[in-house]
Amino acid sequence: MPYVLVSTQIRLETGPTMVGDEYSDPAIMNYLGARKTTMLGNNFSEYHVDDSPRLVLDKLEKIGFRVVTMTGVGQTLVWCMHKETD
Predict the structure, then answer these.
(1) Residue 30: what are its φ and ψ, rounded to 5°?
(2) Which member of 4, 29, 70, 71 lies 3.0 to 4.6 Å from 81 by CB, making a disulfide possible if both were Cys?
(3) Cα 23 from chain centroid?
(4) Which residue, among 53, 73, 59, has the nearest Cα to 8 in the 3D structure?
(5) Cβ atoms of residues 77 and 10 within 8 Å
């Protein structure tokens, strides 16, 4: 999977950071130290880390991911990351 979405709430820019959904690559989630959680009332899971988004982006860059775009959606910041496949 060559794409990863990273997001955080504006008031929480020091963490936690959402780094994937239930279909994300487990190897990447393990590398980031992410934990899979399901919020009460949701029928889907998400991966979170305690790191700030900047640290997550740095870690992903080290394994070949690059920022494609970034945006703010309401009170949420979202980065779309991509890794070229061989």
Answers:
(1) -65, -45
(2) 4
(3) 12
(4) 53
(5) yes
- The SS3 assignment for 55 reads helix
Provide the β-strand partners of residue 76.
Answer: 9, 73
What is the per-residue pLDDT across 18-51, written as a single tens digit (0 to 9) for each? 999 999 999 999 999 999 988 888 888 899 999 9
Cis bond upstream, residue 2 (ω within 30): no
- Count Cα atoms within 13 angstroms, Cβ side, for 51: 18
Specify the pTM: 0.85
How far is the C-alpha of 5 from the C-alpha of 57, rounded, in Å? 10
Structure tokens at 84: 């070229």
Cα–Cα distance between 18 and 8 in angstroms, integer? 6
pLDDT of residue 81: 94
Which residues, listed in sequence order, are joined to residue 5 by a DSSP beta bridge? 80
